[in-house]
Design a protein that fits this description.
By secondary structure, this protein is of the alpha+beta class. The chain has a domain at 20-79: CBS-domain, CATH 3.10.580.10. 27% of the residues lie in helices and 17% in strands. The chain contains 3 helices and 3 strands, in the order αβαββα. The chain has a 3-stranded mixed β-sheet with strand order 1-2-3. A hairpin with a 2-residue loop joins strand 2 (43-48) and strand 3. The longest helix is centred in the middle third of the chain and has 11 residues, at 29-39.
């Protein structure tokens, strides 16, 4: 009888995604939120001119976007992203 593995029994490397998702700093918060939802990730790297400029997370969207009443369809990721990357 095959035993089913639960998330706690699987190695972390198996559960991690290897594909990094990146967006432009000129992407709207609404587009970023939809991409996070559709790709099931909690953060996106911000890429511009061949370099990673920062990261935008679900927390950034909520704390810096929604909590400040920023219109998601007009506000750009560059306004709420965390930067620089270390």
């Amino acid at each position: 009888m095959a035993m089913q593995s639960t998330p706690l029994q699987r190695p972390l490397a198996v559960m991690m995604r290897r594909t990094l998702r990146a967006i432009s700093p000129d992407t709207t918060l609404l587009e970023a939120a939809k991409l996070m939802r559709d790709t099931r990730v909690g953060a996106l790297l911000v890429h511009e001119a061949g370099h990673y400029r920062g990261i935008v997370s679900e927390s950034d969207l909520v704390r810096k976007g929604m909590a400040e009443s920023c219109p998601a369809q007009e506000t750009l990721v560059r306004a709420v992203m965390s930067s620089p990357l270390l």
